[in-house]
Amino acid sequence: MSVQLVVALLALGFLSAASAPVCKELVKPLVLEDHTEIYGKWVYVMGSADHSVFQNALGTLKSSWIDLSATSDHQVVTLRWGDRIDGKCVVGATNATISGTTSTVHIHSSEHKGQYLETCPDCLQWSDTSRSGDITGRYLLLFTRSGKMDLTYLDTYKKQAECLNFPETHHTYDGETELCPDDKEKVVEKDTMEEKPTTVEKTTVEEATMEENPTTEKTTEEEKTMVEETMEENPTTEKEKITD
Ligand SMILES: *[C@@H]1O[C@H](CO)[C@@H](O)[C@H](O)[C@H]1NC(C)=O
Questions:
Q1: What pLDDT is stored for residue 33 in this prediction?
Q2: How far is the CA of 67 from the centre of ligand 1 (A)?
Q3: Domain limits of the chain?
Q4: What number does the ligand 1 atom closest to the CA of 218 have?
């Protein structure tokens, strides 16, 4: 064997050995001590998918927020969302089950099973395998508290996506499209919430909070989830209720 070939093979060996540990450092499941670090409101900033149907779904997403909150069951986290899809708001809620670093969410008939990943500060990164009907694919989603992303993190995101074998096309939030209003926000405002990503008209303040009145909240949320209620820009539903 020629010396050159040996050197070349050694170099290749080093290269392939080098990329694996890099990815191991870049893609680490987030180990949740308690869940407080993931609780609260998050605004979508970037996403990738490895199935064309899911890529198209991301493509229609103009803005999106999610909200994670505790339930009485430590393993169960309530996930609410507000997606602006081609000008319409789709809101809903579901429960996610967390077991170790794995989190499982059912939304309508689809199942998302994945992990939160270690990411930038004030960021939430989610990687999953999603099953919807006979389609199976993966999502990689990045959220931040502000809806803005530190550009220095963009490279890291791209490398993570590469490590996870996602295609190179990534979808990004334009940072400008208004977020869908959050019905719950006026309740949160009663407590102290420093930062509101959206300006929701403060109409009626329902005296019921989630904990105090789970039944009514559940019904409303379930209705929303079932019908995929589309809301107009202004949250007029509350006003209509009063005038009825
Ligand atoms: C989530 O689980 C909690 C606790 O079991 C329950 O009170 C709540 O209604 C559930 N929410 C949804 C949206 O399923």
A1: 83
A2: 14
A3: 40-231
A4: 9
Give 194 or 109, the one with higher predicted confidence.
Answer: 109
pTM of the predicted protein model: 0.71
> Does residue 97's CB lie within 6 angstroms of at least one atom of ligand 1?
no
Question: Does the beta carbon of 203 lie inside 6 Å of ligand 1?
Answer: no
- Answer left, alpha or beta for residue 122, where phi above 0 means left and psi between -120 and 50 means alpha: left
pLDDT in tens, 10-43: 454 444 544 677 999 999 999 988 889 999 999 9
Q: Does domain 40-231 have CATH number 2.40.128.20?
A: yes
Is the CB–ligand 1 distance for residue 226 below 6 Å? no
- The string over 151-183, giving b where at least 16 C-beta atoms fall within 10 Å of a residue's C-beta and e elsewhere, is eebeeebeebbbbbebeeebbebeeeeebbbbb
